[in-house]
Amino acid sequence: MSRKTVRFTVKRAIKRVVKRVPRARRRTAWCSGWENGFRAGMSGGYHYGRCDAVMRSLPNDSVGRWDVRVMYVTSGKGVPYSPLDEAVIGALQGLVRELIVLKPTQDLKSAAVKMRPDIVLVLEGLIISGERIDELRAEGIRTAIWLTDDPYYTDLTAPLVKHYDVVFTLELACVEFYRRLGCGQVHYLPFCSNPAIFRPKRVSAQFRHDISFIGSAYWNRVAFFDQITPFLAARNTYIAGIWWERLRQYKKLSPKIALNNWMGAEETAAHYNGAKIVINLHRATDDPSYNFNSQRIGAVSPNPRTFEIAGCGTLLLTDVRSDITRFYTPGQEIVTYDSPSELMHKIDHYLHHEEERRFIALNALRRTMLEHTYPRRMAQMMRILFEGATG
User: Fold this and answer.
1) Which residues belong to any copy of the Spore protein YkvP/CgeB glycosyl transferase-like domain (predicted)?
2) The pLDDT value given to residue 388
3) What is the pLDDT of residue 368?
4) How many domains does the chain have?
5) Is 373:132 a contact under the CB 8 Å cutoff?
6) Which of 5, 61, 3 is nearest to 373 (CA)?
C-alpha cells in the first residue's frame, strides 16, 4: 500500500467515526485526541509493516560454523556490560562446536586445563590480572581479549594487552597503539547490534517521542545541548541518563529528562523504536568525568549506539567520526551533522519529511541486519582466529 493510499484511508476512517459523534462534541479535546491517536497508530503501524518487510526480505544465509571449543570469560560486570556478554554468548552458541562460559572470578586455569579449549576469549578483562592469563598461555592455551572501552580506558588496558595472544579493539585509532606496545596480533573489530533486542518492534505510547537521546551528559555533550536547549524544550523530546543537571538551563529542559535513569537494553530499544529521530553524540576522548586516556588517543570509530539505533529502523542523526563511512553511507542510511545549528535544521527537516526520514531509516535497518550484527562480528572473529583472516 502506497503512502498516498494510507493517508487517504486514514482520513476516510476518521471522517466516518467523527460523523457518529454528536456535533457538540466534535471540537472537544476527546475528538481531537482520538484523531491524533488514530493517526499516530496508523503511522506507527505503517512504518512497522515496512520494517517487517525489510526483515523478511533478508537472505537466510549462514555466517559459518567452526569445529572448535571456545571458553568465553564474561566481563563480570553489570549494565552496560552484561548485555554485551549476552550478545556475544548468543552469537557464539550458533557458530562453534562447544561454548564454555565462565565468570572472571572463577578458576580459569583449572577449567582451561581440564577442557582444553581452542581459544579463551575474554571480554573487557579489567577484573583479570595479566598473571592469570600468563598461566593459561604457559599451559599452551591460546588467549584473546575484546576491549570494550577504547580509547577511554587505555591507561588500564595498556598493561594487560601484552599478556594475550590476540587483541581485538573496537577503536581503529588504538590498533597502532597496542602494536607499539609489543602486541603481535591486534585487530580492529567494532561492536555492533544485537538483533534479538535492537530490532523493529511495536511499543506503547509512553515510548513515543519525536526526538530522543539516551546517554550520559559528558561535558562535550553538555556544551552541545546547552546550545539547543530551547529548541528541544519546545518539541516532543526525551532524554535519559546521568549528569544532565549540568545543563545551564536544566530547569527549562528538565520535564523532558529522565535524570539518572540508567536503563537496560530492552528499555533502550523500546525508546529507540518509539522515536522518530534518535540523536547520537560521541563522548570526547579527553572528558575529565570518567576517563583513563592520558595518552590522549583519538577516536575515529562509531560507538555501539550507532548500530543499535539503526537496527531499530529509526532515523539516526549522528555527529561525524571519520570511520563511520565504512559502515553506513551518510544521506542514504544515516544522517550526520557538524554543529548544533545543522542538527536543529535537520531535525525539523526530517520531522516534516516523513517519507524521506523513513526511507533512510529502512536503508540503515537493512544494512545493519546484513552486516552489523553480533553473529556477523563473531564470525569475523572466528575467521581471524582460526583461518588467518585479517581484521
Assistant:
1) 233-382
2) 85
3) 98
4) 2
5) no
6) 61
C-alpha cell, 47? 512504518
DSSP for 71-106 reads EEE-----TTHHHHHHHHHHHHHTTEEEEEEE-TTS
Q: Are strands 257-259 and 237-241 parallel, antiparallel or unpaired?
A: parallel
Residue 200 lies in a domain: no
149: Cβ–Cβ under 8 A, 6 or more apart, which residues? 124, 157
* 163-185 core/surface letters (b: 16 or more CB in 10 A; e: else): bbbbbbbbbbbbbebbeeeebee
Strands of 186-188's sheet in order across: 96-102, 66-73, 119-123, 143-147, 166-169, 186-188
Query: Which residue's C-alpha cell is 526480505?
Result: 57
The span from the CA of 156 to the CA of 147, in Å, is 11
Tell me what pLDDT residue 62 has: 86
Q: Which three cell numbers, joined as nine digits, stand for 118?
A: 581452542
Q: What is the rounded CA–CA span in Å between residue 51 and residue 198?
A: 13
pTM: 0.89
Q: Which of 330, 306, 322 is nearest to 172 (CA)?
A: 322
